[in-house]
Amino acid sequence: MVILGAGPAGLVLANLLHTRGIDCVVLERADRHHVQTRARAGFLAANTVRILDRHGLSDGLRRRGHTHHTCEFRTDDGRFRLDYSGLGDGEQHTVYPQQDLVTDLLTHFLAAGGRIRFETEAVAILDADGDGPSVSVRTADGRPGRWRARYVAGCDGRHGAARRSLPDTAVRRYHRDHRVTWLGLLAEAPPSLDAVGYAVHERGFAGHMARTAEVTRYYLQCERGTPADSWSEARIWDELDLRMRAKEYGPLRRGRIVQRGIVDLESDVLEPLRHGALFLAGDAASLISPSAAKGANLAVLEAELLAQALTDDLVHGDPTGLDGYSARCLPRIWRAQEFSHWMIGLLHGSPGPDDDVPYLNGLQRSRMTALRTSRSQQDWFAERYVGV
Ligand code: APR
To answer: Quick check: is 198 catalytic?
Structure first.
């Protein structure tokens, strides 16, 4: 078994297969340091924590993560809070930086004798629909190589070889460009709120998400095509203050911006998630905008489903799980897509110069009002926000 990519999807899958005695190797393009320090998501849904608990992979997050259950929305009409642990299914998030989870998964896998080849980039998957699939690779020193396997798991993200190797005729890609762009920022500053902060402002969206006691993630909506380094730190903090309405609700705790990047909000789903011996999981299977923090949670869920299906086939000779893998994942993926799409509509005025912008902005305000005032809408939100 060859697994492409050492992100949450690839590493959960690798740990589960290794524990069940299935021979597998993980091929990862980046070096170990890069994989362990790449800051990305950080909100784990309750179900994700249950999966990691179930397989003995949650020690780190149980020790160092902290639970989180409140959102604060700030708009022209004032601010309101939702404590979602008391709404819907009563579940909460665990905040644990993704690079820490990846480090834990990697350490666990290697300690158990698992094999990873870092700085080994998969170039193409060959003969996925034939009898002997293989993965052609290139190592850091430019040497080509080839790995043969019974099955290949494409967990190599949105720009990986798995997606590239799929013939157009084998999958259908559903794609949506939400025409919204965020400047994603990591600040060396303690969180300013004990809640996720979502600010809707005529100048654009601003978001606040805790990561650790010393580090906070912020987002600022910006024009499409804005270079990530074009805003000075002073301008970033002034704009965050303005959109988060610091004058009314208290100042933000400023600090050095240690990382920044542009996020064009885009989503897609590939159907089906299987092509012969190649299976897709995580971002390789579907891209989801970060508006509702679903990406890493879907990745872990799919990895568990794929691990079970592969075990049934390789250990018990029962291929039905593999045949049904795509059909089991896709409703969950579409459900997350639908909620994430709804969140984008909740948090942004309509982009672009279209004539229907005022109308769409009216819908956005109405959506926010319903969330502020209707208990059933709040229950629905809580269930979808924290569930996968
Ligand atoms: N060959 C080998 N490895 C590759 C290749 C390749 N051609 N291309 C990419 N990779 C590696 C990347 O370096 C990365 O380590 O695959 C890994 C993919 O990891 P992620 O992008 O984290 O994807 P995934 O495991 O699906 O996790 C999904 O977490 O933070 C969220 O938004 C993020 O939704 C994403 C999620």
So the answer is: yes
